[in-house]
Every structure is written in structure tokens, then in C-alpha cells.
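Hey, quick one: can you model this chain's 3D structure?
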Amino acid sequence: MLTKKKTAILVLALAMCIGVASAALLQYYGKIISTVDVKQAIYLDGHLYNIPVEESFTATPGDIIWKPHYLESKANVPIEMMFDTKITNSSGLPDGDGIIVTYSTAILQQIGTGVAQWSTGTTRKGAYSVKLTTVTTDDIARAYVPFGATTLAEIGRVSFWTYVTHADNQWVRPWVGIYLHKNPGVTLEQWFADYYAGSPNVFYIQAEPCYTDGYSSDFDVWQYWDSEGQHPLKWESLEGPDYPYGAPTLQQYINGDAMSIIYDETAFASREYGTLYVVGIKFQAGYGGTWANFQGYVDDVTIGNEPWDLELFPEDTSFTLQPGERLDFYIKYEFATNITPDVYTITTEVQPT
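Sure thing. Here's the predicted structure for all 353 residues.
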């Protein structure tokens, strides 16, 4: 028979055992181990940040060379970043004399005394627009966006805004042209070579706002032009008649309806254009007898369902990439006429701000 003292000792011992067991259980269930694989937020040309994109090319004094690239955001939040450029000579020493590097979303082209330049003075969206000016009737100034492996049906739509401050002919506005080819991956130079050789593989369409239903010729105001909507742009083709007022819409070229639209016994298209590949799209002022002394701007461009803002990204100036956004841009290399012959390494880093 247990005495009261022995009973108390036994109860105490049981309590101690229970206490030890509880402590062990709490320690076991109180541990959390997490392994997190954090992915890279921004990709350059589809590569991770630690995989450099390398390209080599030959230049001569006075050359201007454009190289296409793209950034793509995998993040769920906006990310600010900027471009940083370093130039070294063959000895690895800093040497930026004679080379200017800039970053933009379009290639600016000019012929004659026409001038295409980036402008911050008159913009509708973002920090920059493209200013287009002419002096004579033969001048050309334009912003050009290359493609190469995208069909017209995949694009489906083109829209842009213009702002005109002066024109000898009050009706003219910057217009849009699309170079097309049966084969993918064709450059603009190859398109023209095929064109002058009489190749059946080249096609082209263009639309001028002044032929749009409900056209307004107001100055000093932003105006919207679209390939669809209530007053869609009318597109003439390279193979069709010269009659822009009755020309088809972009969708009519894509689906083949333009083949049935005829003026003066000539159809605007010999086939559907939807499966043709887009070589490039230009937004242009100039060329023709009505284009003297023009000054205007193009901004807030949409190609397909995606904005293609005409923007310049100055070095060491931050810009924002939105969640899931892809930014196609071009690196422009300008070589001075008096540059020292050498091998230069030009490094562009995309850095977070």
C-alpha cells in the first residue's frame, strides 16, 4: 500500500515526464524551413542578367548603326531601371570619343532637308514624341519600326496621334505606311532590292489621314488616327489604283475583301494580305507637291493591341517597365567622321534604379 508521501513523489515524477514530453513536441512542431527560388525579374533578349548579349560588327567613320533588342518583365509590380553605357578601346581603357550611343523605340530617318528628331516640347504620352519637319516638297522625315517575322493579320491594327503646328497645305498630316513581303525575316534594304528587281514577293500599303471620313484639319491640337473604329484610315496599295478616297480599310486587306473593291477596272489587291509578313511600319511626313514647310509631331502609337510609344531613353535616366510588359528598343551607334581607327567595346548595362 502506498503511503501519501510515496504517492506524491509518483505524481511529481509523472508530471515531470509529461512536461519533458510536451517540451519535445513543441520543439518539433515549432520548426519551419522554407526554400524560395527567386527568379530574375527582367530579361534582356530572353536571357538572364548573368548571360551577356554579345554582338560584333564593323563600322567606318560617319556610320550610324541600329541594333534591335528587347526587355521583358516577369515581375508583378512596376520596376524602374535605366541604361548605362561604358566604352573602352582595344587596350581596355575608357574611350568614348567619337561614339554616341542612344536607346529608342523607333529608327529615325530623313531625306533631303527633312528632319526627324526626338522632342520633349510637345508630347501626348511619355517624355518624348517624334518631331517631323520639311522645307521642300521632296523632303522626308519619319520614324520607322522594323518587324520581319510578324504577319499583318497578327498585327491587325495600327493607330497613332499627330499634332501639327504648321503646314503650307493645311490638310496634310503625318501618315503611315507598311512594307510587306511573302517571306519572313526580310529587311527594308532587301525589300527595296526585291522591289527594284520586279519581285512578285513585295507588297506595300499606306494611309493618309486627309482621306479619312470626318477628317478635321485643325492645327495645334492632338488628333487620333486609327485603322479601325468610326472613321477608319483608308489604305492604298502598291498594286491598286490611285484612288485613296475609296480605298479599303486595313481589315479588308487582311481578310481579302480588298480584292473585290475596284476602281477604274482595277482591284486594290490581288490576294489577301493577312498572311504577308510585316517588314516594317513608318510614320512619315513629306514627299510630294504639298509637303513644303511642314512641322508636326507623332506620339502615342499602338501597333496591334500593344502600345508602341515613340520614346527615347537617355542614359542614366530612369524609366518604368510595367508588369508583364515587353519593351522593344534599338541601340543607335553614331560614329564620328574623325574617329580613331581601333577596336572599341561598347557595354550597355540595364540597371535597377
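One thing worth noting: Residues 4-18 have pLDDT under 50 and may be disordered.
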